[in-house]
Design brief:
The complex is a heterodimer of chains A (140) and B (108). With 140 residues, chain A is mainly alpha-helical. Helix content of chain A is 84%, strand content 0%. Chain B has 4 helices and no strands. Chain B is elongated, with a radius of gyration of 16 Å. The chains are: A mainly alpha (140), B mainly alpha (108). Chains A and B meet through helix 2 and helix 3 of A and helix 1 and helix 2 of B.
Chain lengths: 140, 108
């Protein structure tokens, strides 16, 4: 299994990059796209497809590869991992919320995103920063 | 281009699949894997089904949140669907209730 460790780690990191990029992009769209305009509708339709296929797949791979790494390392009882698990759980929830609201906006242009959605890109970056610090520093 | 209602029906369909997946993995875990482990000393199935059910549970919660932000759940529906994730076989009843809502959307 040790031979696969670095490959699984690479898959995990690539998936994290795609997930974070996608979630920040979603937040950017909530903030800047005017859903009622034809151009806005076109962008939102493309964003819904991109989000479902690429970012959704990346989220799945983040979980599968991440939990496999924890299983290999046996880190599931360590404090930093538990804290990171909670952060990733919240991030997954935010992505679920973004996905639902994005689909709603693409079909109902009169729907305006909430303040939470508008700021979801920034919230994502803050949470990811905490998660990276937990993994890199392992403070507890 | 699909309509708003068609999209909502598709989303409910995905939610039903998530519910069946979660209920099936929980049922296998509770009614097959755990008895095998404790009655026959065979822990292999628990080791395999544990992570699979964990992922199915995460997928279910993710779908629940996603569907809330697309279609919207009432407080009662939230309570029911979260409870169903923890009670073995309740996910199958939940799936039927989701199908009813899907049919109501189609009829409207």
């Amino acid at each position: 299994m040790a031979d696969y460790y670095t490959w699984i780690k690479a898959v995990h990191l690539i998936s994290v990059l795609i997930l974070v990029a996608g979630m920040v992009l979603n937040g950017f769209l909530f903030r800047n796209v005017v859903a009622s305009s034809p151009e806005g509708q076109r962008i939102l339709a493309a964003a819904v497809a991109f989000n479902r296929f690429f970012v959704g797949t990346a989220l799945l791979l983040v979980w599968v590869a991440g939990l496999t790494l924890v299983w290999i390392l046996g880190a599931h009882k360590e404090g930093w991992f538990m804290a990171k698990f909670v952060i990733v759980f919240i991030l997954s929830g935010i992505h679920g919320a973004q996905t639902g609201r994005l689909a709603k906006m693409a079909k109902s242009p009169d729907v305006t995103p909430s303040a939470f959605m508008v700021n979801s890109g920034a919230i994502t970056l803050v949470l990811v920063a905490f998660a990276v610090c937990l993994v890199a520093i392992k403070p507890f | 281009m699909t309509t708003d209602r068609e999209d909502d029906r598709r989303q409910l369909n995905r939610m039903r699949i998530a519910s069946i997946l979660e209920a099936t993995t929980l049922a296998i875990l509770v009614f097959v894997a755990v008895p095998l482990k404790h009655a026959f000393g065979m822990p292999q199935l628990v080791s395999a089904m544990g992570p699979i059910h964990g992922l199915a549970f995460l997928f279910y919660i993710w779908m629940l949140i996603q569907t809330h932000f697309q279609i919207g759940w009432t407080g009662r529906e939230w309570l029911r669907m979260v409870a169903c994730a923890f009670i073995p076989l309740a996910g199958f009843i939940n799936e039927r209730l989701l199908k009813r809502r899907q049919d109501a959307l189609a009829a409207a």
